[in-house]
Amino acid sequence: MNKQAQAVVMLLFGGAIVRASVTDMYLRYVKESLQPFLIAAGVVLIAAAVMTLVHEVLRPRQAEGHDEHADHGHDHGDGKPHREPWVGWLLILPVLGLLLVAPPALGSYAAGQAGTALSSQQISDYPPLPPGDPVKVSVLDYASRAVFDKGESLGDRTVQLTGFIAEGPNGEPILARIILSCCAADGRPIKLGMSGNAPAGLPDDTWVEVVGKYTDQTVTDPVNEETIPYIEVETWTQIDPPKQQYE
């Protein structure tokens, strides 16, 4: 692969990054706060590719014999030009995949393969919940208060959570949400059992909004032996997947 071809691949890759970054697609790979850095990286790649192409087109042409070797391969001392390995063109496949295919965000399959990450998110101080019922809280916030604060900061408040349906330890539906430290590669689930008027008959990865109250019921995650808290569901509603599917 010569420099011009390398520049074209880099141009496509930079364009794919910018395209993903200015749409909601990038949210399937990284946290929302990283958008400016992605855009900057894509712009740098595009600029480098354009500069390389301009340099290759405008540079003074060399001797004809040398041009033949530059165009058709390299002379390794035997008088015959050798072509670059075609396998280099495989570098364009990830670029085409990013341009043409939009993989879904991590969901129930990822949640089933990894243990709940609640223990790594433990904090010691839980501020009072905002006024009004139901109060919107994240799955992570509710689960942390339920396990590490023993539900004291939840009390008898009514809370509203949003997550997707996954299969629980005993085959029952649970509410889950994927949390990220940086990108989808380090995504881990927060799992929440549901009692009371829990959703039933919904396929995995269905997004729901549940309203309910704290319960001290728990179950052990068989993947990593960590505690999965429960919520006593009063009502639930099926919803479309949110723009930001990670917490």
Automatic annotation (TrEMBL):
Keyword list, A-Z: Membrane, Transmembrane, Transmembrane helix
InterPro entries named among the record's database cross-references: DUF1980, DUF1980_C, DUF1980_N, UPF0703_membrane_permease
Regions crossing the membrane: 36-54, 86-106
Domain called DUF1980: residue spans: 6-115, 155-246
PANTHER family xref list: UPF0703 PROTEIN YCGQ
Protein name according to UniProt: Membrane protein
Organism whose genome encodes this protein: Phytohabitans flavus
Gene (name only): ycgQ
